[in-house]
Design a protein that fits this description.
The complex is a heterotetramer, with 2 copies of chain A and 2 copies of chain B. By secondary structure, chain A is of the alpha/beta class. The radius of gyration of chain B is 21 Å and the shape is globular. The chains are: A alpha/beta, B alpha/beta. Bound molecules: thiamine diphosphate (TPP) (2 copies), iron/sulfur cluster (2 copies) and magnesium ion (2 copies).
């Protein structure tokens, strides 16, 4: 081993390891095994799968952050690389932090031009070991991944039984696979032990820091939320990264929703496109069956006309938008928070849509189930804005909870009895309660009362077509009143004061939250106390306006180019143009805590920096 | 403006089995042009529902956008109606049907609404065999937007604008048959005798039922050069035969039993007795019907009547194995797995 | 005639007359004849057709403003009603101004409850006269309209020859219709002369106030602009109020664009829907044939996905959006300016679209032809935002002009020669000039050079697919640079200082301009000098920012509920939330000068008034 | 990842009439799964264009979104390509074709891209008879999004997921024929001998030409229960016959002239000589082809080859009477009526 002119990175339960693989080779499950093993050792972990828009043969990365303190956002920088992909070997070599570790397949020597002297190279002849130990080519491919996991177990000094336990769990139903997998783990473990004693300064030590947490991806939690929230129908069209929302719904519905005859208490239709998927959701909800759909950017655009119908005809809908990098097809397997404006103002004419914005799987579950209540209560579309990072990656999350006393809020719906007991003439769009929301009836409720005509054209209180200016206008203003009502119905922001007197604050939402909290913790350690407001819904609660009033400098942290949430903030509050300062990340990777921190430091120091975090600077230094 | 109903009603109007008079099935005053074919079709729908003694509130009226799509306001005012957006009635109806399988869905659309902007949704609706009646008020022109070409216009036909259509027409019946629809019919707005039983049969059929009704647009496409004009259709109409619909409970009393070529039992026990000429079309065979349609097209005939009948198919709910209770009637108890199940799930995720 | 307890309205060349008819009865052409006759007497006129979303048998109104001073916007209030429609008789009776005139068909007496004593009733037995004079029912219907026009000619003391001249022009090709039409005019004229001498205080007198103006509707001018701008292909789908744009394009192309063999130097396809229409426009422009489409709100929503593709793949497109009242189907035959946000931010992800906003037919012509240059220059979609009022009503407009020396600006396009002469490697998206715009090639240009792959997915300078974060990011930032370039390419705002020192200003655009100028003229007469900025395009030119800086109170006048242009202003300039004050009109009628004026007066007086102009107040008083 | 081309090339590779080698028609390295049927089709496109001696830059490659729609990057790198949005290749190609009638348009799509989201555009594209080649790389599954159902899956067929499809499949050939397309073929990605001539014929045909190519998805739909698997198709393939394509300039030299049942001349003089068994399908008669397709379906056969040929139809430009010069080549002088015309117009508006 060559001498290294740099101190090695040393850390216990606090480092980032990145696996560089080729997709379609089974690496994801091995990498997941590693990450879950850390979790089972009681140490919080945050895995991020960085995959291409392709099925087989292209580079894919898997980044695992081991984080004793439970910082689950992306940190930035890589301490350890497992470089299994020849196509990206050089790049993976270059991006490693000085003092870091480079594990590679030493069956072939590293090329000549790999000559960093500030990192530690760990060569393991993975291919050769597979050739020596396995005959079947598919086995040779799969076990290569297991072997390096075994090696890592040694290098990080992990509890080997945790890994073997995971193998046993995983292959509970295919028992004969257990022994060979454990064998492969041991191969790697032993090789590393033999050749790399005391080389690695990174350790995973057992802790009790995960409590009763679970590990789950956001889309699974969302699908489950739809089951718990009482959704009975999903019309959808496949699109990454939202596909697994409906797949999860299907899985859990199949598990929990069979009647005595084995028939389904739910229905799922794969629509021919997103327009149809949204039309289906509208039809189902019109009939009083909680219905939803899930999509991503291109689908959201295609649903735009229908969202206007639902807004104006006041039909509850739940739409899950799992955002990815736009515009257009963009980077379909990368994350972003860039559908904020298109979702909030979806459709032509004067429209505003309710958004709910979860930041972790538990909130995916809660907000999705709540979304059906909110939609029914407000009789309007509710868009749950998730994203690829949240939806498709596993996250350590507090466990999912359900209060068995909770009753679905179906909003204002009249029964046949209600109709019979009414004194006044019923009007579907009559604002009798002053909250801008009328009473609806489901089709088929009553033989002679309660029928009405639903339409996207202008209508009066009784749902009759009208071109009367003042009737139209009054209806539009009622919708504004309903928007006011929505502010009380939607989840409140999470506001935290680090220092009541501080004039500096930060606003963020969704998956920008974790990295932001971490960055601000770091700043607090250095004495800068920044209060925070995590937005959970749109329309904004007045508390957010107050929060803005209270501060002089407010960083608005988001993952899009055009500062879209900031736009909504200044529009809705009519204030803050000067003090709302953007911190943006648009590179398709989860926003990184170190970058946020550095950015805020520079901005507070009065430097004139672009809101973007990488471009123009990334070349100069290995930036966080 | 045309008037569907007279204001005077005899107190002793006849009543159907439910005790309703025809008036109970009517709608608001039509705002279509006087003489518009669509109004006649509305009347036939009213008649059919009245005669079948359907509960009006158990019917849902669905439509897109167009003069045709306005008509649901002009019939069945005790039914809920949904005038959605242009070309998208199929998906909204699909969702509605998924939400409540117990209603009768009558969808109304125009040729623009279905064959142009709605083509994709239409095709997939048929493919899914959704249980509904789909009526196309086919005037071969865009009425509401004032006379543009439609995709159902025949080659060589020209509307009031005077430019003959040169594109291949979409034959919605042919498409529906080749996509497996089990009930496909064509009719003419002016032929109530044919249309009313067709609608009744379509309502009784389990699965997707299409009725393509030629319905002249008196304002933009009723000129002699149009193959969708009153005159042209009257002169070129050719019927496949007639049929009776015999509800399950009723005795079969047919005037001339010799004429019954076939008797087909629908899902709910209702029978369709087909009367047709010897050697005429076998409507149960989809291949021969497709040929007959192609042939009629070449002979410049409009083949009307029940074109295809196949009662042996699974509707969407059958395919999906949905429970018998309409989904919109399931309650928390039916739907929510509860906290214990969730805790078990949490456990599996550690 | 009963005595009237109110002074009659007296005016020369300055009044509003409203015709109340039933659609499908041929009234529009008679009413147009009246309006055009005023114009031919040298007096500016402003007709507004208020029609239902229906073909026959429903109420329709036609409002003609006679305006010596050339105020072409809507004024508000009605001085004279021609009430031919029984369905709306009462409503028409009620909305007439005190002192005004009510012309009705006296074949049947007015109902008992018509007993205003502050207006002048002019009963003419139109139906009876038709029965007496014509046998054919269609004639009876059509001539009824001509008869009342004849009566008006007498009542307003118009030059009868102008009307007979119009009849002759109109029926130049159907000569035998001339005599009966003139006969009908005379019937009306004579009846009025006999029964209503000196009753009417309104006069139309010949002036020389129209100069070389023409009368044309915006959509015709737009269609013609597309012909002059070199459009060769239109893919479209019918929708009110945009249909006549393509119809006009077709008409003029048929007139001007036949080659020697009688073949068309243009192509028009009626698409199956708006998605397809936009796809066609994209395909045509990709190939270098100037292509466009026209639509209204619902179509704009449906085009959203494709607009994102065009933005990101950088394909020039011209889209004419003739706005109508939303949301959803809304009031399809009523006007509004409510697609501003959906157009500006169309599509998911970070997108921004260029808007051009004409305010009269001459600008429709100019901006549409310019739009093709702007789109080609910027390689991006350009949306011409017109509206129903502008598009479908005739307007007095300065004549259309074309500079024969003007050359189309096809933007940066490489020829085969260019490609052969290049030293450097060409990259489709390489920013060699620093303006954010690369050089494109048309397919088929060169056998071996210049081919590239157009895509909506992330791409590098050479149009190759990439998932590289920094390449993606650099590309997104280049698009921001291009956006900066756009500010110089798009038409500048029209800024007018009434008083350089005034701190009060108004910003408006499109069809809100005319009524705004009139309102501000009125205020100026009362001593309030308000500077104005008429926005003509988005992105905004920096001059608009300066204009905002210079003033303390700025009224932003627009025809939508959510203050959409104001939203764009505060977003783009990051300023002005406190001083930009909305004046909004959403009732589907063209915004009225008197209402704007009253609103500004009240706001300047410190009253706390809702930005909306009618609701809650309209009931109390006959409001302007 | 699969490799379409070997890196080593013989310096003396054969050249076509233009002096190009096959390499001049190749594209970038494919990123599809090894063994994916789509790659074979790309190769056949390369062969066909090479053999026809087409100028690569006079070809435009159009596609939507999907694994299949990625392929245009893997052939003809000297041609412009347009990878548009999901399901909307038809409209973009229509616009492109309107803008320049002189290019050869090769559109590539998937079964999801065409038969689901793109169904409406597809139908209308056929109806307009746009002059283009439309290749569906039909694997009966959504490849790129990892294995969802497609609307072309046969009843009873199941993908790797294992749930048999219960919906009626969309038969794109049947649809194209009934909408008047004059060149409709079906083939198999594994049968290059059949596919290459089909592509060549399609390119030469004036008007819309569809080739529906069964193209197994090795990753998600190549299991034995799938009717789109290599195995199944090999076992159930039935050909209509074969044909030669004889370019205008070339002498007709056919091996066995007895086998030529018919010789059909295309628009540009090229001839198609059909060879088929006695009593086999008359592909010029759309009725009999539709029947044959229905029959094959019932017999669980995949009928391949040229299914329908009709050279007697107007393509979109013919219908529109567009000038011969491509619209994108017209200049100001051709297009702008000038100031005098405008002044005359002003005058008429006073
Ligand atoms: C998205 C959208 N595009 C266009 C329109 C305008 N539009 C209204 S009705 C119609 C066509 C109606 O034709 P058809 O369906 O044949 O009905 P008809 O009026 O002839 O009965 C169109 C294009 C619309 N409402 N929405
Ligand atoms: C509007 C939109 N919806 C969904 C998607 C996601 N998507 C990408 S490819 C695809 C289906 C591909 O199936 P197919 O056309 O059969 O192509 P294959 O991959 O099987 O070749 C889908 C649904 C998308 N890109 N855009
Ligand atoms: S325009 Fe035509 S379709 Fe519409 S109402 Fe009138 S006649 Fe009927
Ligand atoms: S997933 Fe299927 S269709 Fe896509 S590349 Fe792989 S084999 Fe081909
Ligand atoms: Mg029609
Ligand atoms: Mg596929």
């Amino acid at each position: 081993m060559p001498t290294v002119n740099h101190p090695r990175i040393e850390a216990v339960n606090d480092f980032v390891i990145r696996f560089a693989n080729v997709n379609g080779t089974g690496s994801a499950s091995a990498n997941n095994m590693f990450s879950k093993a850390v979790f089972r050792m009681g140490v919080p972990v945050s895995p991020k799968n960085i995959f291409p828009s392709n099925i087989q043969g292209l580079p894919t990365w898997f980044e695992v952050r081991v984080t004793e303190k439970g910082y689950l956002g992306s940190r930035g920088d890589v301490d350890f690389v497992v470089a299994i992909n020849g196509q990206t070997l050089k790049q993976d070599y270059e991006t490693l932090m000085p003092g870091g570790y480079f594990l590679y397949d030493s069956t072939k020597a590293l090329p000549r031009d790999f000559k960093r002297d500030d990192i530690f190279e760990i060569g393991i002849p993975l291919t050769q070991m597979c050739i020596d130990n396995y005959t079947n080519p598919r086995q040779r491919q799969l076990f290569k991944n297991i072997i390096y996991v075994g090696a890592l177990a040694y290098l990080f000094n992990m509890e080997f039984e945790v890994l073997t336990g995971m193998v046993k769990d995983q292959f509970a139903k295919k028992e004969k696979l257990i022994a060979p997998n454990i064998g492969a783990l041991e191969l790697g473990y032993n090789y590393a032990k033999e050749h790399f004693t005391e080389v690695c300064g990174l350790r995973v030590e057992r802790r009790d820091n995960v409590g009763d947490s679970i590990m789950i991806d956001g889309n699974s939690a969302t699908g489950l939320g739809a089951v718990y929230g009482g959704a009975t129908f999903a019309g959808w069209y496949p699109i990454t990264p939202s596909t697994s929302v409906v797949e999860a719904f299907e899985k859990y519905a199949n598990k929990f929703r069979k009647d005595e005859q084995g028939k389904n208490k739910f229905a799922i239709l794969q629509a021919e496109d997103e327009l149809s998927a949204m039309g289906m959701a509208i039809g189902g909800n019109w009939n009083g069956a909680r219905s939803f759909t899930a999509t991503s950017g291109p689908g959201l655009s295609l649903m735009s006309e229908f969202l206007g119908l639902a807004y104006f005809a006041e039909i509850p809908i739940v739409l899950i938008d799992v955002q990815r990098s736009g515009p257009s097809t963009g980077m379909p397997t990368r994350t972003q928070q860039s559908d904020v404006i298109s979702a909030a103002y979806a459709s032509h004419g004067d429209t505003k849509q309710v958004l709910l914005i979860p930041c972790d799987p538990a909130e995916c579950f809660e907000m999705t189930s709540a979304a059906f209540d909110v939609a029914d209560r407000l009789q309007t579309p509710v868009i749950v804005l998730s994203d690829l990072d949240l939806g498709m990656n596993d996250h350590v999350s507090r466990p999912l909870k359900w209060d068995d006393d909770r009753k679905y809020d179906r909003g204002k719906v009249l029964t046949a009895e209600d109709l019979d007991n009414m004194q006044e003439r019923w009007g579907r769009y009559k604002d009798v309660d002053g909250d801008g929301i009328g009473y609806r009836t489901y089709p088929g409720t009553h033989p002679t009362k309660g029928s009405y005509f639903t339409r996207g054209s202008s209508h009066d209180d009784y749902a009759a077509y009208t071109e009367d200016s003042s009737v139209y206008e009054a209806n539009m203003e009622r919708l504004v009143k309903k928007w006011e009502t929505a502010k009380d119905v939607a989840p409140r922001p999470q506001i935290k004061y680090r220092d009541k007197d501080s004039k500096v604050a930060a606003i963020f939402f969704g998956t920008s939250a974790q990295a932001s909290y971490e960055a601000l913790d770091g700043l607090q350690e250095e004495g800068t106390k920044i209060n925070t407001c995590r937005i959970k819904s749109f329309p904004f609660h007045p508390d957010i306006g107050k929060f803005i009033e209270e501060h002089d400098t407010i960083f608005v942290i988001e993952q899009n180019r055009d500062a879209q949430m900031r736009t909504l903030l200044i529009n809705e509050f009519n204030t803050g143009t000067e003090k709302l300062r953007s911190i943006l990340n648009i590179d398709g990777m989860p926003i990184r805590a170190r970058r946020i921190k550095r950015k805020i430091e520079r901005m507070l120091a009065g430097e004139n920096v672009s809101p973007f975090t990488t471009v123009n600077s990334s070349a100069q230094e290995v930036e966080a | 403006m045309s008037y569907l109903k007279s204001t005077f009603r005899h107190p002793e109007s006849p009543k159907n089995d439910l005790g309703y008079t025809q008036a109970n099935y009517e709608g608001a005053l039509s705002t279509l042009c006087a003489g518009c074919g669509h109004d006649s079709i509305s009347n036939s729908i009213i008649n059919a529902c009245y005669e079948l003694s359907l509960e009006p509130h158990k019917i849902a009226k669905m439509s897109g956008i167009g003069c045709s799509s306005k008509t649901p306001a002009y019939f069945l005012s005790n039914s809920h109606g949904f005038n959605s957006v242009h070309g998208r009635m199929p998906s909204v109806t699909t969702g509605a049907n998924m939400g409540n399988r117990d209603l009768t869905y009558i969808g109304v659309s125009g040729d623009g609404d279905t064959a142009s902007i709605g083509m994709g949704q239409f095709m997939h609706l048929v493919r899914r065999n959704l249980n509904m009646v789909y009526i196309v008020m086919n005037n071969g022109v865009y009425g509401l937007t004032k006379g543009q070409d439609s995709a159902t216009a025949d080659v060589g036909s020209s509307s009031k604008k005077g430019v003959p259509n040169m594109y291949e027409p979409m034959d919605l019946c042919e498409l529906a048959i080749s996509l497996g629809s089990g009930y496909v019919a064509r009719s003419f707005s002016g032929d109530k005798d044919q249309l009313v039983p067709l609608i009744k049969g379509a309502i009784k059929h389990n699965g997707f039922a299409l009725i393509d009704v030629v319905s002249p647009c008196v304002t933009f496409n009723n000129n002699p050069q149009s193959t969708k004009s009153y005159e042209w259709v009257r002169d070129h109409k050719e019927a496949t035969g007639t049929f009776d619909l015999v509800p399950e409970e009723q005795e079969i009393t047919v005037q001339n039993p010799d004429q019954i070529n076939e008797s087909i039992t629908l899902h709910d026990g209702t029978k369709i007795n087909l009367h047709r000429q010897p050697d005429s079309l076998d409507i149960t065979c989809r291949e021969s019907v497709l040929s007959a349609l192609e042939e009629a097209k070449q002979n410049k005939q409009v083949l009307t009547g029940l074109l295809h009948l196949n009662t042996d198919s699974n509707s969407t709910h059958d395919i999906l194995n949905t429970c018998d209770t309409p989904l919109n009637r399931l309650t928390e108890e039916d739907l929510c797995p509860g906290s214990d199940a969730l805790e078990a799930l949490n456990q599996s995720l550690r």
